[in-house]
Structure formats: C-alpha cells, structure tokens
What we know:
By secondary structure, the chain is α+β, with helices and mostly antiparallel strands. The protein is 21% helix and 22% strand. A three-stranded antiparallel sheet has the order 2-1-3. It is globular.
Amino acid sequence: MSQTSSSSDSKPQLLHLVFGGELETLEGHEFRDLEGLDIVGIYPDYQSAYAAWKNAAQRSVDNAMMRYFIVHLHRLLEPNGLKSAQPATSTT
C-alpha cells in the first residue's frame, strides 16, 4: 500500500502519465498497435515522471520508431489550474 501525506506543507499532487509505443511514422503521433502501448505508470509530480520517461526511452533507444510521452494529467483534471479548487467569490 502506498503512503499518503496529509501535512499542510506538502506540495500539491500533480499527476503525470508516462506511456509509449511504436509510431506509424517518425513525423506523426499515431501508434502502430494501440493494444501494444507500454503504460509505464502514473506519477505524483513531473520530476518522477521525467525519470520514468527517461528510463523507458533509454531502454528503447535501438528502435527509432519507439517514442515515450509524458501527459500532464493534472492539466486535464483541472484545466483552470489550482485556482479552480478555490471557492468562487461574488463581486456584486
């Protein structure tokens, strides 16, 4: 089981997804085999996601068609940023 932090001085959780697969062409972002995608994992911050991305990318360095990506899930979940978690105030 993973540990969770509830301290008020902890940094916000900014989820990132790392995944990759073989591309159809070097110029595009379409994958050859969607069922064969390598889902590396979901990480609580960019630094740990970057470390996982780098490790996965280095393992596939011999395959020019293989690409790994970092998706900023926190931007999809909170498109307005951290401000959206704050209550709205009325200025009437």
